[in-house]
Task: structure prediction
Amino acid sequence: MLLCAGAAAAQTRSLSAELAVSSELTERGAFVGLRRPIAQAAVSLYDATGWSVGGALGVPSNGLRNARVVLRAAHDRPLAGDWQRQVALQYYGYPGGGPTGRGFDRWEAALELRWRDRFMLGATGFHYLHPAPGTPALQWALDAGGRWSLGPQWSAQAALGLARVRNRGAYAYGSLGLAWQAGDWRAEANLLASSPQARRLMPSSTPGHLSIALTRMF
Result:
């Protein structure tokens, strides 16, 4: 009986993984570390109750010194009218980045609403673990994004966000791109940009560049 119960429980869970290579790592309109190609691996465990846990590791071409680690727990719940709600708690760590990397170590709590796989609206609160003197540990971001099918394998996508990650004010960022997916393979090309205010607040922000990524899903 115990073996049968264990088998039934196992069937309510699924495991997924991804391997990706991208031209660089950008978070909310700003480069993370140096602008170098980065390889990323992620794994997630999903439960039929809506819970999921997972982790990711990103290693740029200049080595583990600028690596990024992400740990995540989330819960999804369907709502009326093809809407879905997700709440998530995430940890972002930069273990090899020294004092500069430590400044980006943080916890994130996020609430996201999605309509099918076409539209997303989210709000995120950050708690930085090692804020600079005079900088509040709590910050925030608002994000919206959409995807439009262009055929069986092609789609266009766009996103817009507003964030306050330093104590000198908020800034805007966005993206516009094209994605191709066939089976377990996905390729994307996105134009990423941030507002002039971002470039005054953060030297690492991008005035506009093309980002390319290739992902293999398992």
